[in-house]
Amino acid sequence: DEDENEDEDENEDENEDEDEEDQEINNNQNNNIMLIANAKLEASLFQNKWGTLPISAAFEFPIPMIPQQKNVEEKMTTNRIYIIAAGTTSAFMKFYLFAQDIKSIYYLVELFIDPT
Which residue has the higher pLDDT, 107 or 10? Predict the structure, then answer.
């Protein structure tokens, strides 16, 4: 009887571990941001928020080739990220972008593409 109880305890522990793993997977899936199509944001509101919000994250990574501005704009729009302003200088391309999720949270982004 003692051996049977030990086997049952081990099975319960294994099931708990599997349940925890399933819960972790579900939590990770729930952390995905679901952006809405055709989000709208007035340029003046973007500018006001941009000036008052702290930087929440910054990333830098190399890209294999420098895209054309229109290609960046098309790719962003296809992925529900919209452009408030964009421009090109001799040094880089610069974009101000926004998106809105299904919870009505806005995401504001400044994107630099440096050809060097």
Answer: 107
Beta strands in 1-116 (DSSP E): 82-88, 93-100, 106-113
pLDDT at 64: 86
Cβ 88 vs Cβ 69: under 8 Å: yes
What are the tokens at 11? Answer: 């099975």
Pick from 90, 102, 84: nearest CA to 111: 84
Residue in this structure with the two tokens 């229109």, named with its chain if needed = 70
Tell me the one-letter amino acid at 53: L
Q: Are 100 and 41 in contact (CB under 8 A)?
A: yes
Does the pLDDT of residue 7 top 90, yes or no?
no
Q: In this structure, are residues 100 and 36 in contact, taking their beta carbons and an 8 Å threshold?
A: yes
Residues 6+ apart with CB under 8 A from 112: 92, 93, 94
For CA atoms 5, 6, 12, 15, the dihedral sign is negative
Which regions of 26-115 does DSSP assign to beta strands (E)?
A: 82-88, 93-100, 106-113
pTM to 2 decimals? 0.68
